[in-house]
């Protein structure tokens, strides 16, 4: 029985071989640069995929929430880092997790630091998040006085332990990657030089898939923390981080109508399945995902321009090539490579492998 026979509605497919190859690629790169890989699991959010990661020497992971951390608890990770400015309203939940698991959080201000210092009853590590040009969050990389304030507060409690500096250069998705990484190396190197006399064991970490995939000069940065590389997606392929053949997930969607005169195919697959991340084609049209032909051993990637040109809540409308129109009929399944695999996986809440097994996701099945 083919895995395709199990599919009746939009289903996110996972190619284990490609996923494992992506894990190995980044683990090998970290090892080559004498760095530690601490992948961000906001993309995969899966205990099974976590077990695959361990086979490539990965011992620590990153999450984006207390909820996700709780889901991944108990799997033997040396540490789980929550890479989001910590929400002080969740301190009781954090304290409970820290009673059984080594946890670290991200701090960016004195208010939250004081709250944790006065409330925690279990030890928690922390990174100070640094902003070196992205502008989303973090302490300015040259604001040594604010950094020192946070460190001084933490020194007064045994339950807050400084681990180092975390910098996410997310503007690599939009800007000059070599120039951005020059800023990243400079900022983390300067901070290490300034604060290592006080904290000789501090480490520096950076994590974004476009940069980590293509950069070969990381200076003296200690750790890599990308996430999307586990699956990759069309956005990464368009950025040059990967080839389309490196994308490990594809959405299987049923064909519900075909209009050959308009060269359009209607599928069951919309915003509640893919989210609404979008690319822009060279002609200015919108691209919400690209066609692949599903096979028993994976999928075939054509080069004919067929893509999701429009989506609403449940509907997806494809611009279809003559080849596609000649190969499919109503009731068939076709595959779509997602623009943003992290959001698509979060929408779907589970995966189906090519050998017909369901793979867990922190959010659980939603469709």
Automatic annotation (TrEMBL):
This entry's Enzyme Commission designation comes to 5.1.1.1
What the entry lists under PANTHER family is as follows: D-SERINE DEHYDRATASE, ZGC:162816-RELATED
Q: Boundaries of each Alanine racemase N-terminal domain copy?
A: 19-191
Domain D-serine dehydratase-like, first and last residues per copy: 248-353
Family membership, please give it: Belongs to the DSD1 family.
GO-annotated molecular function: alanine racemase activity
Name the UniProt key words of this record, in alphabetical order.
Isomerase, Lyase
The UniProt record lists the keyword Isomerase: yes
Annotated source species: Algoriphagus sediminis
Q: What is this protein called?
A: Alanine racemase
Query: In which domain of life is the source organism classified?
Result: Bacteria
């Amino acid at each position: 029985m083919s895995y395709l026979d199990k599919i009746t509605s939009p289903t996110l497919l996972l190619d284990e071989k490609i996923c494992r190859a992506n894990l190995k690629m980044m683990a090998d790169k970290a090892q080559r640069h004498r760095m530690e890989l601490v992948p961000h699991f906001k993309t995969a959010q899966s205990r099974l995929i976590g077990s695959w990661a361990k086979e490539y020497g990965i011992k620590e992971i990153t999450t984006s929430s207390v909820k996700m951390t709780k889901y991944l608890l108990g799997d033997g990770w040396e540490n789980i880092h929550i890479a989001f400015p910590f929400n002080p309203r969740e301190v009781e939940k954090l304290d409970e997790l820290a009673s059984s698991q080594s946890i670290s959080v991200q701090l960016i201000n004195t208010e939250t630091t004081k709250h944790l210092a006065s409330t925690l009853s279990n030890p928690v590590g922390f990174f100070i998040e640094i902003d070196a040009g992205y502008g989303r969050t973090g302490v300015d990389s040259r604001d040594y006085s604010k950094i020192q304030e946070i460190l001084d507060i933490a020194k007064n409690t045994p339950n807050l332990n400084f681990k180092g500096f975390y910098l996410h250069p997310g503007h690599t998705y939009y800007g000059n990657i070599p120039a951005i990484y020059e800023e990243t190396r400079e900022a983390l190197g300067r901070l290490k030089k300034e604060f290592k006399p006080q904290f000789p064991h501090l480490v520096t970490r950076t994590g974004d898939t476009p940069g980590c995939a293509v950069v070969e000069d990381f200076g003296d940065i200690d750790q890599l923390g990308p996430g999307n590389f586990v699956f990759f997606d069309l956005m990464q392929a368009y950025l040059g981080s990967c080839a389309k053949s490196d994308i490990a997930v594809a959405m299987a969607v049923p064909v519900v109508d075909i209009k050959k005169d308009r060269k359009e195919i209607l599928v069951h697959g919309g915003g509640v399945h893919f989210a609404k991340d979008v690319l822009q084609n060279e002609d200015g049209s919108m691209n919400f995902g690209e066609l692949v032909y599903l096979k028993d051993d994976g999928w075939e990637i054509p080069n004919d321009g067929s893509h999701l040109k429009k989506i609403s809540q449940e509907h997806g409308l494809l611009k279809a090539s003559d080849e596609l129109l000649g190969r499919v009929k109503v009731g068939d399944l076709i595959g779509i490579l997602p623009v943003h695999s992290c959001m698509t996986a979060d929408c779907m809440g589970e995966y189906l492998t090519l050998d017909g097994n369901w793979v867990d996701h922190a959010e659980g099945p939603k469709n």
